[in-house]
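call fold target=ABC transporter permease
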Amino acid sequence: MFSRDRWDEILQALTANKFRTFLTAFGVFWGITILVLLLALTNGLKNGVTADFGNFATNSMFMWTQGTTKAYKGLPKGRYFNFKLEDVETLKREIPALKYVSPRHQLGGFNGANNVVRGTKTGAFSIYGDYPEFINQQPMDILQGRFISYSDIDSKRKVCVIGEDVIKAMYDQDEDPLGSYVKVNGVNFLVIGTFKASNSGDQEEDANTIFIPFTTFGQAFNRGDSVGWMAITAKDGISVTSVKPKILELMKASHKIHPDDERAIGNFDLSEAFGRVNGLFSILSVVGYFVGALVLMSGIIGISNIMLIVVKERTREIGVRRALGASPWSIKSQVLQESLLLTIISGMVGISFAAFVIFVLNYILDQMGPVKNFANPSVGMSVIFTALFILIVSGLLAGLIPANSAIKMKPVDALRTE
């Protein structure tokens, strides 16, 4: 039941020694501020690191060929081989859990030799031969035109989709690239679309990329039906890591590779790597809570000590109230309310201050532009509710010992205190 007299008495007790109350509250303020900031910075680091995965489906893996390390079925070790298009069909047919199996080819790189010519302009770019479904594995924003289609694949059309940095390097500012031609290693390709990298881990490289139909790539650059490497994505709800052993087993059997040869087929499991990163940051979040809680605990101990002093100073007052018939719970509840009020107010100020610091930090990051491995430090509402819960529990714990001390006083002994 609300009692204005009770709350006036509580406020009077807390403001009787303002400087002492301020120093006591500062411990809780600082502890909750450190807790929220640690979690925000951990989240910012997580956002920055996971951005390196880009928008590539995190339930994916890459697979390529390497030299064998074991002799098998009459074939020597050190043998090199290539994936074929029939391997793609084998994987799709034998492993229904796979959503996409995209064969890929790559030519050059934007840090390599000039491989693209348009009029008097030249440039070095990454040229990829792909199938249409690759855009579902690595989403990109189509700015103009369209991406590669199966009609392009079947007809082996000499068409391409170019990145925004290719446009900047090969075209004038107001020039429309659609319908124009670029020459890749001496072969002319019609530009049918332009794209922008979408939250990719390496936006610079993606923007310097040209996509052409996989079959056209094989014909134009003498790759036949070979496959440079594959991007494989499992269906939703199925981890690609769980089907990876079956994938490797099938490919080893298809190319007569010893079952125990672990090097012949190289692979990078993006799903597994993404899981490790998430696990690492889950641990860091726990560490953040632990360190923040330790700092907060020092503030709670300070409040408990001050409340003990307050109870000692009010010994005679407590004795008078007990003599007049005040119940032990009435005395105990007042001490707990004073402790809880001081803890919650100082904690809420700490949360507000931490939110302000996070806002300023994000503003600075927006002005500076992208920072490697760090982006958008923030905390969710779950963190705020958790902090509030910690504050309430801490406030009650801080007042519990002083409150028990207060009700243990005998009225006669309290009245004798000078």
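return ok
The chain has two domains: 4-53+275-416, 82-254. The radius of gyration is 34 Å.
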